[in-house]
Amino acid sequence: MTRFNWTHHHSEISMSTLLLITSAPTSVHAWHALGVAQALLKKSEVFHIFFYQDAVNVANDLQWFPDDQRLLTQEWQKLGIPLPVCVSAALNRGISDDENAKRHQLSKSNLAQGFELVGLGHLADALQSSARVIQF
After folding, report:
1. Are 15 and 45 in contact (CB under 8 A)?
2. Which of 55, 58, 83, 86 is catalytic?
3. In this predicted structure, what is the pLDDT of residue 15?
């Protein structure tokens, strides 16, 4: 009987990781996701990110925090990588880019620089091309 070596076969397909971030920016899990992204970048590993559910709040440019507090939004921006945010979850939480603000007659956009509103197709593509998913 031939055994199928899943690990070996799977690694040939893709070694990338998807960081599926669903925790609110105030959660320790959201900060942990940033730490994992920083570590993957440092190791030059291929990975994808997707902000979903309450995690989309990290893309709100109108948040205020005390001066002595590290800002999660700015820490993500410093990475200089694509930061895809679920458009439906963002709009549902009052976060919009210029295009969606016009389309939905909103008074202004408030999507933080470096973040991009995308559909769930983006998540499906990332899932398809990732060997592992880590949800925060």
Report:
1. yes
2. 86
3. 75
